[in-house]
Amino acid sequence: MNLNNKIANYLQINDTTGLDFSEINQDQIRDSVNALVLESDVPFQNKGHNPRELTDEERKKLESDTQLVCDFKKNKLEQDAKKNWDLFYRRNKTNFFKDRYWTFREFDELNEDYNLISSSSIKKLLEVGCGVGNFMYPLLNHNKNIFVYACDFSTDAINLLKSNPEYDINRCHGFVCDITKQNYLIECLPKNIDIDAVTLIFVLSAIHPDKMRAAVENIAQVLRPGGIVFVRDYGIYDHSMIRFDKGHKLDEKFYFRQDGTRTFFFSLEEIQNLFGYPGLNGPLFQKSTNEYVFRETVNVKENLRVPRVFVQSKFIRTNIPVLKS
Prior knowledge:
By secondary structure, the protein is an alpha/beta fold.
């Protein structure tokens, strides 16, 4: 079915009526196109294990951006990390991120009917970097068997999360937590609790690279053996990486935005090394899947197509204990 037919069906218009699209409200047509563009003949999504190939123009742009910001600026952004995220949520409230329904398509284990085919269903899930609930609330409505512990670095985000009319203490618990601080996460959760799964959706990229491993170790502390970590984050050569102008580079593949928040762009090897590095007694996690997701964002009005690249992974907790210095 071509895109015009899909738009017609979407607007509940039958070709036999002979109704001309010019007679339809143009805003309605535009909204329909935007809703259906990913169902059109435009490629939707591919997955793979090799990075996206850059165009010559993109490669030259990245290679020319060699100047890092000064140490004072780097340290200031690190010191103000929580304040900048609080200001982000104070400014945007609940209006910035879309609800993440795609998670049920990408991670089968989150679906309620997964219980029918697996004896290790998810009952208690920890969402790290929950924001205002764009993943948690759709999940609670989608799967009635899950209880969610939801934490975020930002106090303002948690306040917004709890102000939602759907917030139910019988189904979820939101709390402020810095997952990079030693033992902080385990102290925030009820004692002797078995967490079955953890989600890290666009979270690790916001953490300073020097602190990422500490975050992973803290997650390993609270996740039961056999439990699963779901990861989705920015991949190397994503369009947003190419768009950064000079003067925003903190380190290799690490940038800061105008609002002071930061983002890192991962290769698959870096994600694997974070979770699968060998400790004194062995790795804390075993890889289940680890791949790039290649998508195309389409702006029909501007006739623009931009390549998006994400890393998407699942790691299983081993029975190796976390050794803290």
